[in-house]
Every structure is written in C-alpha cells, then in structure tokens.
Amino acid sequence: MAAGPTLIGSVQRALHLLDAVGASERPVTAKALARGVGLPLPTTYHLLRTLLHEGYLRKLDDGYVLGEQVGALRKHNSLHALLPKIRPVLRALRDEVRGAAYLSLYSGGEIKLIDIVDAPELPAVDLWVGVQEAAHATAFGKCILSCLDPEARRDHLSRYRLADLTPHTITDTRVLEQRLAEGGGVFNDREEYLLGTACLATPVRAPGVVGAVAISLPARRLPAVEPVSLERASRRVSRAFALLS
Questions:
Q1: N or C: which end of the chain has fewer CB within 10 A?
Q2: What is the distance, to the nearest Å, from the Cα of residue 16 to the centroid of all Cα atoms in its chain?
Q3: Pairing between β-strand 209-218 and β-strand 197-206 as defined by DSSP bridges
Q4: Whose CA is closest to 221, among 194, 192, 200, 193?
C-alpha cells in the first residue's frame, strides 16, 4: 500500500484560517476563528500573528480581514492565467521579426521582466546586468519610464544610477529625459545594453497596467526592422490586459 503524502499541519491550519477569514463578509475575531476552524485559542493566536506579520491578514478593531499579500497573490494568479494568451502573441512577433520577444511590466514601483520568447537560433539577450539597474539602457526600460508620471520616474532614477554599460549607454539624466520625450511610442536600444545587440519596444497600456513589448536582434539588422509588427503585438497584449481588468 502506497504511503500518503507528508503534510505539514501548521501550514494546513494557517490555510484554514485564511479560508475562514476570506469566507466571512465581516471581520472575524480570533475566538470565532478558533471555534470555526476547531483550533485551540493559543494556537490560533500564534498562527494569526504569523499571518499578520507576513501581510496575509490585517487586524481591525473588530477582527481580522485579508491582507495586501492576498491581493498580490490574486494579481499574480491573474497574470499567470493571462500568459497562455499573451505567449502566442510574443511567439508570432518573434517569428515575424526574427528576434527574441519580451514582455515587461511596471509593478510595485519596479520594472519587471515577465516573459521571454526566444529560440535556439534567436536567443534572448544575456541579461548580465539586472533589469532594474539597466532601465536606462534597454528599450523596454525606456519605454516604461516614458509612460510613468514625472514623480514615479524621478523616484526610479533616484534609486538606480545610470551605469555606463557600453560606449553607447546614456549616462546623463537630462539626455535620457530628452530621449524619453522624443520616443514617439517606439523606443530603441542601439548597443546601449550590450555591444552587437539592439532592441525595440512599444508600450502596453490598460487600466492599472503599464508595460512594454520588446524585441532584440543583432544590431546590424535594426535599420531594416519596421515597428509595425511590434506595435500590433503591443496592441494585442494591451487588449488582453484590458479584458482582464
């Protein structure tokens, strides 16, 4: 007879408490949760303190409610559910332009690379410097920075210096701001992040969403690339996010 899975009781009990709080339309007291889940009150308090500390619950005057981390999980789950719809768009862009395709989003005050669709013969860029530190040197980073309000853009640039990655990298904030203003909806990286590699990016916009779709390819091919395919892909991704909101 096969042995059953090894389960961690404390994790189960914490999840049962989250379920109980989420099922209630009103804040729930610790005593009510202990009775409803069938736990000793001291154990309940111990688990509640941990869930509060990690942000999965909030304590109000009249009881417990779900915390911000639960909302973050829902958002991430929504994004994971959306990726199967977005990836075919990125794959079609890769095949049409013959370059690796990327989706990046601005989330929690940071620029995050969400998905990459490449191929053995069309490899993605070797991201030897982190996305956050190199927003000024990447097409999708500049694209997202251009979509932020001035305060959010200043906040980002104040936290990440304009590192000199190649001889072509913009390291002057005033020059960067000028390039962002002149972007016109299509932003490029001409060997600014990595010598021999170029990128193009266009914005992804939907309610509550700021992002970019980008492609990378050998720098020698950049002059021959028309942005029409990229703009079409970004519109399709924007529509997918709009339907989710």
A1: N
A2: 29
A3: antiparallel
A4: 200
Q: Which domain holds residue 36?
A: 9-66
Q: pLDDT, tens digit, for every residue of 120-148?
A: 999 999 988 888 899 999 999 999 999 99
Domain's final residue, options 66, 93, 114? 66
- 100-107 and 110-117 strand pairing: antiparallel
What is the 8-class DSSP label of residue 72?
H
Residue 71: the pLDDT is: 64
Quick one: pLDDT band at residue 72, thresholds 50, 70, 90? low
CB 100 within 8 A of CB 125: yes
Per the listing, tokens 């914490």 go with 14
Residue 3 located in a structural domain: no
129 within a domain of the structure (yes/no): yes
Distance CA 118, CA 120 (A): 7
| Residues 129 and 153 sit within 8 Å (Cβ to Cβ) | no
In a domain, 2, yes or no: no
73: pLDDT strictly greater than 70: no
Q: In the chain, how many domains are there?
A: 2
Domain end: 66, 83, 100, which one? 66
Please indicate, yes or no, whether residues 41 and 110 belong to a single structural domain of this protein: no
> Is it the case that residue 74 has pLDDT exceeding 70?
no
Q: What is the CATH number of the domain that holds 32?
A: 1.10.10.10
**pLDDT tens, position by position, 149-170:** 999 999 999 999 999 999 999 9
